[in-house]
Task: structure prediction
Amino acid sequence: MSVPIRTENLTKNFNGFRAVDSLNIEVNKGSFMGFLGPNGAGKTTTIKILTGLLSPSSGSAYINGIDVTEEPKVALTNLGTIVETPEFYPYLTPNETLAYMGELHGMTGEDLKRRTKEVLDLVKMSEWADKRIGKFSKGMKQRVAVAQAILHEPSVVVLDEPTSGLDPRGIFEVREVLSGLKNEGYTILMSSHMLNEVQEVCDEVALINRGQLLKRGTVDELIHSANARRLEVRTFKETTEVQLMRVSQLNAVTDFESFGPRDFALSLVGGDEAQANLLEELQNIGLKVVTFKDSGISLESMYMSLIKDSR
Amino acid sequence: MIHISENVSPTMKKSVYVAPSDLSQIGIVVKYDFLKYLRSARLVGMLAIVTLVLLLLTALPPLLGNSYADDANKFINTYASFASILIIIGATLFAGDAIVSEFQNHTGYLLFPKPVKKWVLLAGKFLASMGAMFLVLLFYYGVALLLGLVITGSFSVLGVESLLLAMLYAVAALSVGFLISSIMKGITGAQILTFALFLFIFTIVTGVFTLGGVEPWFVVTYSSGTIGYITQNPYPTGGSDTGVGPGSLAPGGVATSSYIPDIGVAIAVMAAYTLVSLVLAYYFFSRREMSA
Result:
């Protein structure tokens, strides 16, 4: 059985800049993998190679065991994609756009109509099915993009920041669609900057930086393996801005957030010793700590910790 | 709340659809690309320009006190002489942005990850633009031939031959337009270059070679001269020296040669431009990446 998505020593250079560096990733059947990394990490480049939009400088990318560069037509048949923010032909309606894309995939007649209606219902765009896309908002276009990605019921879906540019309601709705896809058995690779989104919908995470894989595993595995924790602190007296700034600049602190005059939370790299040292540091800064509790580790903390380690 | 359909099996997905043959996919691309021309202002605009040209060419002679030619071929000659400029405008509108727009407008992110080969996309888009261009030419020549029939009482067979040459020139011009579109980074630049190349650059090259006493048989716009010449019976011959300046071949004057393109050579040149341009267009398009 072929792995649905696989890259093998994938490398891509742009005028001397190495965007992807010998990257090896695999997404198992039925898995929903979040593809994380800071800007310029190589996520979009990897996705573009997987979807046939770019050619690798060396190495290979496979969809269902078929080399995307060698046999693009066969490899892309069973693939649904959203790459960057796709634009649509403004003179076509969603119905016509889906008909165009569906026909290229081999869909015809009643089957195409039925499936078009299904996916437009799914993304709540049925009402605009016969309106030209030219005047649609970015959110509406993104929903049509989701619809075209799953129209032909591909086994593999590759999404590049599918909620990018959407308003909170749009993000919520697309995220629900994505959660639904997971239940339907699609194999999905999704890049995202939104860690909470990845934590919510993905069951696996691959973290890359500078084109290289830093870590890969289930969300739980990564969180447990991370050398980081999130701490919530309440002080006896109100904190001053200077005190907060000094806390946020402490060496082991990767993320800092103030909730009120006496409450803040931070992410800390390190184990028990680092936590004990932090308490001492807080006292040195002049804070009288009332509560100092470990609130677990978020994917965000893990992400920051790993990125920091890789620098 | 969004509900996923209940009847979908929770087991692994497997698409049951198989991408159609390359030939079928060309037909699909043609269908939707031609829809672009039907719905966009450019085909309507092009037809409006053609209508205006037809009106001016038909209405102006009587308004200026001139009578129409009494021979159908002479009548159609006036119209045929304007076909080249219409083709240049058509090539600019229908070919200039055909490829580059997929990159600049980001529609390539939608289309290119589909299981369709680049040459299929190129062929489909080219045939669609050819269809739009032929529609315009058929309308133009159809009306002109009909007017000739009504006004002179006879049908111009040479007019039909002129139409065929115009169609061949249109294919060559579209091919060059596609080549430019596959190289250029912006739509506007591609369209301006297509227009300028045919209207100015090729014309200047033709002029320079003619002044130098070399027949510019290899310039496609020179070959397009056959579109008008073919309606003259007999077909004109060139090569005579004429003087330009204060006096014919007088001191200070410039000796020039007037050349008339040979029909066979012109057809071969237009076919060669088509073939070479399309091969190069495919070469550049297939290597172009959505890296922006």
